[in-house]
Amino acid sequence: MATSSDIRKGLCIRYNNDIYKIIEFLHVKPGKGPAFVRTKLKSVTTGKVIDNTFSAGHKIEDVRVETQKFQYLYNEGDMYHFMNTDDYSQIRLMKDILDTPELMKEGEIVTVLINTEDSAPLSVEMPAHVVLEVTSTEPGVKGNTATNATKPAIVETGAEINVPLFINEGDKIRIDTEKGQYQERMKE
Fold this sequence. Notes:
Layout: E1 2-3, E2 12-15, E3 18-28, E4 36-43, E5 49-55, E6 59-62, E7 65-76, E8 79-84, E9 90-94, E10 109-115, E11 121-125, E12 129-137, E13 150-155, E14 160-164, E15 172-176, E16 181-185
Antiparallel strand pairs: 1-6, 2-3, 2-6, 3-4, 4-5, 7-8, 7-10, 8-9, 10-11, 12-13, 12-15, 13-14, 15-16
């Protein structure tokens, strides 16, 4: 058993007869009244995101997990196929438990959280950033740079990302997987 002070991003807990992964949290200590922790929880079975507030010292049941490296192979509709890089066994996961499936390129190495009690995969964690090639974007208009002007671009996985005006088709860009935002243009 853990308490609300042990809450951190990525922690898996048992709550309301389901297993949830903490995707955001904020410890709040108001000037008046007791402290509490405001959280955003994502169900690992349905993918539904809920907001919840735990009071200070509240007991939570954490789920023991282990991490393993898997390589993304391909997807069939909502089913995504992964291969364990150690023993080459394959697993299939629903799209709902993936954080950002639209940024996953075939061959990408990801971390899969596995429940130690029943060996069921709980969640897939992407690397902090990925490098993808821009497949289509409109040309930037010169003189339209009074502020940080951006334009939409489609990357090789099919995701749409807002990029600066100087990015062209064929450029490789680094994308932050947590926010799904452009970080920088990669040099060849």
